[in-house]
């Protein structure tokens, strides 16, 4: 026991030393911070990512791109914080609260799952402007909250039509990241567009990589690989993915097999991750998350902030299809005709699979 | 500790080393190190080579009833069951030492990532002690605590219930669907939801227990697979054609919201009555977690069931010989573990979200495993461990604020658990060796301890 006592003494002394040191140096840091704040008067934008975070080559990266553009064009300072997988709403709430309370204004939440938490925190910080990408139900409340939502089904409708028109086997496929209503919406539009363009087309049953709460389907490229092989084996020669980072695996596999892949969220033709198979990217369903983020930051910077949501659809080019590579040039008139019909309200695109 | 059993085992020594017929024996002798019984008569030869890191023993079930002593328990079992030093000074000193070592390692890691370790830790402490953070930490710790207790129940008899995750998600989901479907006056609605969750969790875990005793399926495998099945079942049922409520234009799918009469209000009113004013909402079911912890402690330490549980874990054959049905114990333990697991999601369900949606927290079952290891399966230890983990998770966001990748928090948690496990095991062995040395010294001076003990009791 004598030695035990000695160890305890040593540890206690060590603890005292460590803690003493910590508090001394911490004080210095805090002082430096406040000095910085007084020096600059630029907008400090705080952005909280959805699961996947920066580097998902998709949704979150698109938001990051919008923020980066704002940083460059509008001279704002930015801060990004990512989410953890499987976290409860209270985590999102405290993340937004952290951003707001440390002086970030405006604060942006990326992903529909932030909606409830953001509305709650916005009430506590009436002088901070909040923005939610993919506002759930396309509804926000409060004089300091704005949101964007997207008609993904409309863009998917057009790429579905492109897939049907380009398919030689008469079979096209769809690979979704996670089996959630948001991704089902992509499939609903895709299927409807394909059937509209070519009524005899076979749309293979959608393949969702994972079931919630497993959100690996947005990340794991291996899962994308396997699923793409499965759909190719079933005879599909055009495959549309709505699987975020996992979709990189889809594009690579489909490209290696010499078939068409359709990208999602941003114009994937120009992405370095799939550069070696980019000649096999037919088009991409573009969802301008970047535009919505930039527009919002700009509105705050120019004191033109308006609360409420903005619906991004084909009409205002918030969603659409990409033409990079020129692979859809021959069917462009047909696609634009369909687009005009949707904009005119002649075609209503379903948001749920039939 | 095991003085009297030591000398009686000595004549067996050659058999123990050479006879591999009983798989548990060489394992035990090796893992227990030279601190084992054979060393006792050779006090002058302390064999310093054995002070290595905790070695993982194989999957040996303690087969021989003679190994009643703690030094015969293989390291992995000792770690799982939360065996540690017995002296009070060591009990307090070991975790403090471990935490300091892990703090040191963390600081080095922070330095390696290019951050200022001291200010990083300082900003974590600053953020973690804000009132909002405290509320979040308490709520988070409540979830971790229930999860870790569920895991610890299995650990106590060396059953690895990896399926806590599936058990609590399925339980919370079905209980949420039930609570949202029927409206009962308080407190019946709440009781119904809680009972339903306990039943579902217990039944889901029982599948693994029954498979183990009837078909010999390892509970590790069956519970992992049951997790996957639970995910599939929930994904199938969480659909607006089935148990979910249609929510037009929403990207979320959720069960019907539990009516106001079925919810549990926050604990803040009670807390401010005793002088603690906190913002936000502290889970109203926090006391439930405390009660679960106390019941766990009493059952394990003061009931026959708890004794049977410990014995079955230590040595199934010894338990069998004294009339305990190991099969029955396995099923009951799994059910108890699953029943507690069923409670994990309930404080959040009745106190915060009021429905089971895509945003319902997942993965708590796995956090529970590490928290239980860190808490040494002791209710109080688990409480401290869950608070520590909740603090680390809560403050991971502030690290990004100061330009440190938040993944470092995961590394910190790993470092803490590893350090605690290793330090405990080393201190435990060191203490055993120390005791044996003093016993040996007594013997060398000619005292007959056995006779003295007999004399003092008569």
In short:
The complex is a heterodimer of chains A (354) and B (458). Chain A is α/β, with parallel strands linked by helices.
Q: How would you classify the helix and strand content of chain B by structural class?
A: mainly alpha
CATH fourth-tier homologous superfamily of the largest domain in chain A: Response regulator
Task: Write down the overall mean pLDDT of chain A.
Answer: 87
**Per CATH, what is the topology of the largest domain in chain A?**
Rossmann fold
Distance between the termini of chain B: 21 Å
Shape of chain A: globular
Strand content of chain A: 15-25%
Provide an overview of this structure.
Chain A: One of its GO terms (cellular component) is plasma membrane. Chain A: InterPro entries: BMP_lipoprotein, Peripla_BP_I, PnrA-like. Chain A: Residues 48-351 form the ABC transporter substrate-binding protein PnrA-like domain. Chain A: Pfam families: Bmp. Chain A: Its main location: membrane. The complex is a heterodimer of chains A (354) and B (458). In chain A, the strands form two sheets. In chain A, strands 6, 7, 8, 9, 10, 11 and 13 form a seven-stranded mixed sheet that branches. Chain A contains ten helices and 13 strands. Chain A folds into two domains: 41-150, Rossmann fold (3-Layer(aba) Sandwich), CATH 3.40.50.2300; 152-287 and 323-343, Rossmann fold. With 354 residues, chain A is an alpha/beta fold. In chain A, helix 5 crosses helix 6 and helix 7 crosses helix 8 (247-256). Chain B has 458 residues and is mainly α. Chain B folds into two domains: 5-88 and 428-457, no CATH class; 114-404, Orthogonal Bundle (ABC transporter involved in vitamin B12 uptake, BtuC), CATH 1.10.3470. Chain B is built from 21 helices and two strands. Chain B has helices at 5-9, 13-18, 24-32, 75-81, 88-112, 117-128, 131-156, 164-181, 188-215, 219-237, 268-273, 286-302, 304-314, 316-321, 326-343, 346-353, 364-374, 379-394, 396-401, 407-444, 449-457; strands spanning 244-245, 254-255. In chain B, strands 1-2 form a two-stranded antiparallel ribbon. In chain B, strand 1 (244-245) and strand 2 form a beta hairpin. In chain B, helix 7 (131-156) packs across helix 18 and helix 8 packs across helix 15. The longest helix of chain B is centred in the C-terminal third of the chain and has 38 residues, at 407-444. Chain B is globular and about 85 Å long. At the A-B interface, helix 1, strand 2, helix 3 and helix 6 of A face helix 5, helix 6, helix 7, helix 10 and helix 16 of B.
